[in-house]
Structure formats: structure tokens, C-alpha cells
Specification:
Length: 268
């Protein structure tokens, strides 16, 4: 082959889309790396994610406060919800709902008690640290004086709406959110320069579809708790546990298993 033909062949190979097997392998190896990280690194990364994800609530509240009261305002204000997710995902911080697929694929690839136990530990650390970060930033927003008075009513409205659903509805609405976040993780290896657009589009759909997300919602839950607007029992059993279960079902039981199902024969 001539140099020109070789260059053309290489360009064709570079332009080919990643196969599902390749995407799976990229995510599985990322999962292996996450499982090998120290508990201290996981904890502080999770706290950072819990703090930074609050900009989803804040971004949405800012847009709601300043947009005119028109029928399409709801669709525009929900773009603010994407802000925190972009910062967390591009910043590679530990977000619990990402781990419902990333760390599960190594276990599906090679099931063993060692990996299973490590997943349980990792999930516990990341979820706890996400919630700690959420409570820290919610307390700051509520009592730190950093948020202007004109935005505070919108924050309370959003928080009451997010945590005010019946437990069964919170669970059901958390399933699509879990699927969408897992889908973001699955698409990022091939997204390249489109990564931010994909994150914005999918997380906007979570907000516009009125779906529930355990970490972003924990900021809203924490805000109401620290301001006395939500009791602990209702917060835990009416919101937190149902949404947690729904996100896990969507991200792991549905999306991760479907992703594994389409590649496991090729891998074996």
C-alpha cells in the first residue's frame, strides 16, 4: 500500500464508531480503577460532588427567579439543572448514580465476593459522602447569607416539589433518572467534544421530566431539613430511600444488565 492509502485507511479506522464491546471495556476498566481507589480519596471526592451538585438546584432557582412567567419558562429554567452535573461528571468527582453502572460492570465480568464486597463499601462511602456534601452546602445556602433574598423562595419551591411526592411515586420517577445517568456514562467514551452537550441534554430531561435523583435531590432535602421545613422521618422514608432504590433499579438492574446483555457473548 502507498503512504496515501495507508493514511486513508488510518483515517477510516479513526472515524469508525466504537463497538458496544469497546465501550463496555472502557467503562469496565474505569470501574476497576474506581474499585482500587483508597477509601479516603473516594470520600473526599464524594463530598466534593455533593457540594458541587448543588449548583443544579441553584442554577434552576436563578433562572426561575428571573425568567418571565410564560408557559415555556419551565423548559428553560430546567437547563439550570444541568450545571451541577456538568461540573461533577467532567470533573470526575464521585457521584453515586454513576457508580450504579461503572463499578457493577467489573463484577458482571468476573463475579466474586471480593468485588461484590468492594462495591458495597464503595457505594456506602460515596453515598454517605455525597449526602454529607449536600448537607454542608444546603446549610451554607440557608444560613450563610450568600444567596440573595429574591432567589430563596425559588429554592424552597423547588425543594418542596422534589421531596413532596408520595414514596411510591418518588421511587417510580427515580427509575428513569437512574437509566439516564447510566446512559450518560455509557455514551461518554465515544462522545468526545460532544460530552458537555450530552450531559446537558440528558440531565435537562431528568429535570423537565420531573424525575428524581438521589444526590441532587439530597441537596433539596437537606435544605428543607436545616430550615425546619421537612421532618426526618418523611425525608428518609418518603424521599431518600425510595429515590435511592429507584436510581439503583434504573442504573443497575435495568441499564447495566442491558448493557452487559449485548456484549457478554462477544466477551466470552
Amino acid at each position: 500500500m502507498t503512504e496515501e492509502e495507508i493514511a486513508e485507511e488510518q483515517a477510516i479506522e479513526d472515524a469508525r464508531k466504537l463497538t458496544p464491546k469497546t465501550v463496555y471495556e472502557v467503562i469496565r476498566r474505569n470501574g476497576d480503577e474506581e474499585l482500587e481507589r483508597s477509601n479516603g480519596s473516594l470520600f473526599w471526592s464524594g463530598v466534593s460532588a455533593g457540594i458541587v451538585i448543588s449548583f443544579s438546584m441553584l442554577g434552576e432557582a436563578v433562572l426561575r427567579s428571573h425568567l418571565p412567567d410564560v408557559p415555556y419558562r419551565y423548559l428553560i429554567e430546567n437547563l439550570g439543572y444541568s450545571l451541577g452535573f456538568v461540573m461533577v461528571i467532567i470533573g470526575r468527582m464521585q457521584l453515586f448514580t454513576e457508580n450504579t453502572i461503572t463499578t457493577v460492570l467489573p463484577f458482571l465480568h468476573k463475579p466474586c465476593w471480593r468485588i461484590f464486597n468492594r462495591i458495597v463499601v464503595l457505594w456506602s462511602i460515596v453515598l454517605l459522602s455525597n449526602v454529607i456534601g449536600a448537607f454542608a452546602i444546603a446549610t451554607f445556602y440557608a444560613h450563610g447569607g450568600a444567596i440573595s433574598a429574591e432567589i430563596m423562595p425559588a429554592i424552597e419551591e423547588l425543594s418542596r416539589h422534589a421531596t413532596g411526592m408520595p414514596a411510591a411515586e418518588s421511587f417510580a420517577r427515580a427509575i428513569p433518572a437512574g437509566i439516564l445517568v447510566a446512559a450518560i456514562v455509557w455514551m461518554l467514551p465515544e462522545a468526545g467534544a460532544s460530552s458537555v452537550s450530552i450531559i446537558v441534554l440528558f440531565t435537562w430531561l431528568i429535570a423537565a421530566g420531573d424525575f428524581t435523583h438521589i444526590v441532587a435531590g439530597s441537596v433539596e432535602m437537606a435544605y428543607l431539613i436545616v430550615t425546619g421545613g421537612l421532618g426526618l422521618y418523611q425525608a428518609v422514608f418518603g424521599f431518600f430511600l425510595p429515590v435511592l432504590a429507584g436510581n439503583v433499579v434504573g442504573g443497575t438492574a435495568i441499564f447495566a444488565m442491558l448493557a452487559w446483555g449485548q456484549v457478554h457473548r462477544e466477551i466470552e
